[in-house]
Amino acid sequence: MKIKKAFVFAAGLGERMRPLTLKTPKPLLPLGEKPILDYTLFYLKKYGVEEVVINTHHLADKIESHAGDGKKYGLKINYSREAELLGTGGGLKKAEEYFKNEEAFFTLNSDTLINCDLHEAAQFHEEQKTPATLVVAPWQEGYTRIQIGNGRLLNIRCGDHLFTGLALLTPKIFEILQTTKSNLISDGVMPLLQKVKAVSCFVHEGYWRDIGSMESYQQAQEEWAASHFTRR
Questions:
Q1: How many domains, in total, are found in the chain?
Q2: Using one digit for the tens of pLDDT, what is the confidence trace for 169-187?
Q3: What range defines the domain where residue 31 resides?
């Protein structure tokens, strides 16, 4: 399976990163040589993604001006601007037209650094024959627990894994989501699980860093400095 499209969440306010995010949207905060967003986009390009939709809200003009039409990444970039924040569920639903005819597509947070092999994840997703696959990692303190068994999602708020923010979805998810403020997992994936009885989980044990706070941003900076980690 070759997945050619991806949705990147970049509309958040970055409240836990203030004052850094008062004038700079979190996806454009620097990490080593590039803004955080650039690592995400080059990562997707590396694994064959051709077209990306980025949702924007806070300081949307700056994100759209920086990433442009995507040519500098080797991508085609479209934008889904939200007048009011719709969350991960409503935000994805708003962009349905870009993905409704795809066999599958990726979703990824703009503030997530990960080195998961997307070819392996896509092969796993295809073999599982489920309408959604979450990429999960061993649980860390401070994150919502995910319970899995035999490669399948069992429950949330318990278990030994966490959701990395990376997912492989099919248009089936749009039958569940509404264009209202909602959460992709609790308001989309979990109701989908109840409906179809099977959502897959691909376990990633490599590098993963969610830059959601000043502490995690500092940790990412230190990791980059120590290893010059790059996803390009």
A1: 1
A2: 999 999 999 989 999 999 9
A3: 5-227
